[in-house]
Amino acid sequence: MRYNHHPPPGATAGIPKKPTNVPAKVVAGHLMSKIGRPSRSRRSLLLSLVLVLAILCLVLGRRHADDLHLAAATLSRYVPERVTNTLAHHIEGYEATRWDDVVESAGMGQDSAKKPKFHLLIPYNKPTANLCKTMLSAAILNYPPPTLISYGSPGGSERPGAGILQNMFDFLLGREAHDDDLILVVEEDAWFQLPAEVTVSRFFHGMRDSSNKLVEKYGTVKDMNSTVSKPMYVQKVLFGAAKECSNEPSEPVCAFVPESPLPNDIYGDETDKHVGGIYNRPSYMGSSMVMGHVSDLRPIYKQATELLQFNDIGTFGSQYVFSKIFGEQEIARQIYAASESRKESSGWPSSFPSKPSHTSIVPNITLPEDKDYEFGIGLDYQSSIFQVMNNSAEDIRFITFNTPSIIASPSKLAASIFAKPISLPPDLIVSPPPYAQHTVSSPNPNPPITALDTIDSDEATWNDVSLATNVIVPGSSVPASLTFHGSESLLSQLWESMWFHKNSRALMRLYIRSPDGPIAAKAAAGGGDKWWDLRGGKGGVWTDKGQWLDWNEVCGAFDEEAFGDGKGEFGKESEEVGGQKVVYSAFGQVVEGKVRVEKPVPEEEKKEDGKED
Prior knowledge:
Blueprint: H1 23-35, H2 42-75, H3 81-90, E1 102-104, E2 111-113, E3 118-123, H4 129-140, E4 147-149, H5 162-173, E5 182-185, E6 190-192, H6 196-218, E7 220-222, E8 229-231, E9 237-242, H7 252-255, E10 284-293, H8 294-310, H9 318-345, E11 377-380, E12 386-388, E13 396-399, H10 415-418, H11 426-429, E14 467-470, E15 481-483, H12 489-494, H13 504-513, H14 518-524, E16 541-543, E17 548-549, H15 551-555, H16 559-563, E18 583-584, E19 590-592, H17 603-612
Parallel strand pairs: 3-4, 3-5, 4-16, 9-11, 12-15
Antiparallel strand pairs: 1-2, 5-10, 6-15, 7-8, 9-10, 13-14, 16-17, 18-19
């Protein structure tokens, strides 16, 4: 596939000019002049033609390579490289420098990029102040423009969550989602506090570490097609970890989930015994937040959708259904491990080349054998990505790490760890500073720089800002996001404590100016940054129906609750607070004085325009 570069008007600086006198043209012209001479033999002519074709192939190949390097140099100005580099670093076999990795989608009649993308999905059906806070935190911290699942749907059902779950599954099966795409799902009351590249890096590292622990616990098994052993179980999908099971505690799906890796005395003598769940270790699935590849999420959402719609338990809601799926996975694993242990103790050959590190004790539970219970699901026990705030408010403190702090140990088992001062996580030490998540290089930024763009302590490092920190996790944990489902009373209390809140309007304006929006999306479609939701957009959201909604369309009525600075609707601030003077045309149209955000064009409209051309 050819990639032609068309620089914008006036944007020729730094781009090498292509020679006008191409050697192939000179040779071809010379040949044509010779053909007119009757004295040349046919054999000589054929040899000359072969020579010309060889030269043309070499020249065109060289020009194609030049075009690709030219496009790469140009795209590097627009593409958000940090997330790209983070993702590419963790994908084995992914060739980050390939530019021709495009295939024709079967039956779709269009080019579909093989390289993965990163999607942020938020299932919610209407605009709220909490949704806008989530959108604001995602924009400031360089996450893709969210896609709202079921936005505008009526909601309400005798099977809670059935419509949203079906729409989520439809998205995973749709044109925007490809097998290797990375999906992050949060609810509308989840706030981000760390950058996207930190979240992505933690996900891949966590999956690798958890898979290694599964090998220690369950062993390996021989691959049927080779002599090489492979892990019996691999973790592929991460859900949040909650302190209470949504099902009845006596149910097997609650009683036989894996034990939390946190010390069993982390809350002292009351650990796992508190009636309200406050002093329980996180051990149960929180289904409202999940991260994984599309190919790994599809079977989970397929199973959940079928159970919710066609099974009697569907009336209990989606959280109940997800807990059942996770619980049955863990029961099936324990049954398997127990059976292998019995084989070894009785002298029969086991399928384990390496023995599991424990002996499972499983109750008399029968699972139908015609069903696959393994989904590679794991929980974020350390709250590295998902901090479930329900029953955990006492676990969280806002800490500034530039002053060493020692947390009094609630645990005898982990006393030696708590004795050390807590410190900033290593991945934040090497991350760009908090107020440098977006860069602007345009000489005429839109919106223009005004008093609204003043940022306090813009040279601060992550050590200098206050971060929500789980101090119960030994060594502490600074989660990438906080979710408040079930603890909505904390929403109004803690929003002003988020490190970006005081400067959120200035940071949002900086995000709007940064070049990784519609321009980057258009450029990336030609082979650049495939690790982004390529539909583009700035400050707003996509719906699962492919409609783009600007910030003001969704959040205009909630600006004060989101920004909390009394400066009015975003992009329409008055001159008194630093906004631009509004200039009207003779026809009463605003020609200057408010933020102009390029509205991305949905794929369906692009197709229609192409047909008309």
